[in-house]
Amino acid sequence: MDRSIDFYTKLMGLKLLSRHEIKRTNAEIAFLQDPEEKGAKLELTRYRNQKKFIQADYENRLFDHIAFNVKDMDKTITKLRGEKVVITDEPYRLGPGGPLIAFIEDPDGTLIELIERK
Fold first, then answer.
1. pLDDT for 53
2. What top-level class would CATH report for the domain 1-61?
3. CATH 3.30.70.1650 correct for 63-118
4. Whether pLDDT at 41 is above 80
């Protein structure tokens, strides 16, 4: 959990709002949000007794990625590269005049799309 919180606060610019223990499920959750607290909240959940994802009701769902808007793609990619973040797709433009996008992975391998709109 600490590794993920560090990634999302230090590298993605989110602010940790709260972190709680859930004794009933032997888990902990953390809520993060943009510093202005205007966007959606990101909830991270860690089940201490679970080493892999084993929730039958959800195993067959297709989850592709989450996305973040960035102000300066070059600056963001340079910072992430310096921190050894996996960059799966280098920045590219979605058509003439379209947004600039790139894909990275968080510490647990979750695919993250970065989007620069100008």
1. 63
2. alpha beta
3. no
4. yes
